[in-house]
Each structure stands twice: as C-alpha cells, then as structure tokens.
C-alpha cells in the first residue's frame, strides 16, 4: 500500500469515527447511532515483564501484528515497573503526572482520566481480562469496564478472579482463562453492535515464569548472551549495579522460562485473531501489543527491571489497523512510548480528551516525531539496596541519566533532598550495550563537549512537564 493510499484510508475512517461520535454525543436514539457507527474496535494486549529478543516465542503474534501492522522498533516503557507502566497506558501520562509512581500507589490513579472512561462514555462496550493494577483488591470492580475478569493477586494457575462482580477461583492456566473470556466477549458482538474496547493482560512473562503444562519442557534456541551480559567491569556504573551478581547462566534461565510462558500468549493472540476474522471485524480493529516493561537477562549483572538500561526500558510494541492504513508490515523507528497508546486510541475513535487531564503522549496515527523520550523510576521507601530514584533522557543516539536522593512516601509522594547522586551518559550508536559511561572521570570540558549542561537542564524540565510541554 502506498503512503498516500494509507493516509487517505486513515483520514476517511477518522472522519467517519468523528461523525459517529458526534451522532452519539448529540443524543440521537441509540439504534440510529449504532447503525451509523464506523468507529474502530480497540484491542490492547499487555504482557508482563516482557523484554525484546523474544520473537521466537511469539511468531503468530508477529505474523499478525508486524506482518499486517507496524512494529515500533524503539518503543519504550516510560516507567519500567508494572503499575506505573499500566497507568501510563490507560492515561497517556507520565508517572509523575498520573501519580502511580510505584506498585504500592495504584490508589492514586484518577480513573476519570483513563481511556476506558472516555470510550465507555462515548458508547463503547468495554472489557478487561487478566491483571489490572498491582495491589488491586479482588473484591473491587475495575471502574469503567462493563465486563471483566480481574486476576488478583496475579498467578499462573488456579487464580482468584473477580468475574463481573463475583469473586471465584478458576482452576485453569490463567493465560487460557484470559483467552477464553476474551473470545466470549467477542462472541457477544453478535447481539451488541456497539464498537468495543478490550484490554487483555496475561501474567506472562512475569516471574516465576510458570509455563503451561504442554510447554513445560519445550526446548528454546540457544543463547550466548550479549556484551552487557554480565559485563565484567562495572566500575563506571552506580553502586547497586556494581553489586549485582547475575551471571550468563542466570540470564539464560530467565530467558528460557520467559519464552516458555510466552508460547501460551502466542496461542491466545492467534485465537483472538481467528475470532475477529470469523466475525468480520479484523479490518476495523485497532490492535496494540506492548509489554508493561522489559527485563534484564543479567545485563550488567542485573536480573530484574526498574533500571534505565535498554533491555528494561525498550519493549515490544506492535500496532495494527488495516482500515486505518496500519497494515503495511513496515517498521517505524520513531521514539514511541506507552504514553502514546491513549492518545492514539482517542484519535482513532474521534474523542477529544478533557482539558483537565492533559495527555503527555501523541497519537501515532499522525506524523509527530519526538526528539527524545523521558523515562523515570521512583524508589519507594528508605530501604537499602536496589535502584535509587532516577530520570533519563533518551534520544535517537544518546542517553543521559541522573540518580537522586529521593523516595516516595506511603502516599506515593516524592520526598528527599533531590540531590544528584550519580550520572550516566551513553553513546547509543557506538555503544548500544551501554558499556562505557562517558561521565566516569569526565572533566568539565569533556562534559561540555558532550552537551551535558543542556541535557541536564532539559531533564529537569522534563521531570515536571505535562501535556504540551512533555517530551
């Protein structure tokens, strides 16, 4: 498909979407609004602790969403931690704006600022199946979802679920439960002609990485690591990284177990694809596939998330919408992020967000290209060990990070002096594995040559930015 044809298709469908939305908002009878409704269905699939480099385990997913969609090759999790990342997907905001700075702070999310609220209010049928937010009470219904099965706490087998308001144990592999519930949700389109929003969140590939029985012993391709695994000399890294003990064998074990759990996700995605095809809804469904954060396979000795390094902050990110022109199979190298999902959804559905909830991301349907993205992490409490609070400027060819004397309190609010404890700068072109921190023993003249003063000033602005001022 040519670029011109793609743009024309997209403009046509956006115009139709806007007209349908205006019809519904004008208070016309529901049947008339539904009959004229050409707005796309929205499907968001969010995996857990899922790094890049896992293509072997998700071939069917990639065949659909990259072969007939777009792969954002530089997709980012703006906060590489579960609850903040998911809240950014829902709101299009950085964590410093939506307030869910850590896994302990889900109560800070303003549900009125979420895409599910916008879409439900605009006449969409909304559904959620799988993990919602860390710490979510299973007895509580997720706001602005018409139908749901929330897994809390998340697990792989025989989980506790809140199914449309009834708490129950379902004795099955939880990825399979997510799949089955999603298929039933889609089947109900036979009697409900409204466009729909469906959010699917399997627990894979989060630890303990328990595979489905049929994949428990599946052989995975060999892996010899990469230059950052485990990186022998970490003297230029922050102290917690210098103290990390992960080995190549540790990285291999994590990778093997993650790949095995993702095989079941691939089956579920294929089943959803086949259902949409059978219902004739494949063409006009806008699909996102993204991880809430990446994960380190012993990169720099680290075997967790929450750090500013590429294997943790870059994530798989695929988008498909044939009716909107997103079906070319092309790669897109823009600096994309999870905060772009909500603006893209509202753009496609013809919905203007409320001014009191400014979105930090940008619609991926247009030509917008940012020159850098902010990633940030907030240390919770005053305990020792682990990463300090940090913020990072990631550009097309460089990354600058600052660590701070700062932590969140019981309410999720930052406290501390804010003093800079450590800094890193990496040349992402010549040093993609982030082995050489150019600020280690750098002179003031060398820092000036690298442009550090300007980067530091930009990062300070980014950390308090919102809406139109956000990177």
From TrEMBL:
It comes from the Bacteria. Pfam families: Sulfatase. Residues 1-35 form the signal peptide. The keyword DNA repair does not apply. PROSITE patterns: TAT. Keywords: Signal. Gene3D superfamilies: Alkaline Phosphatase, subunit A. Coiled coil: none annotated. Residues 40-351 form the Sulfatase N-terminal domain. This is Sulfatase N-terminal domain-containing protein.
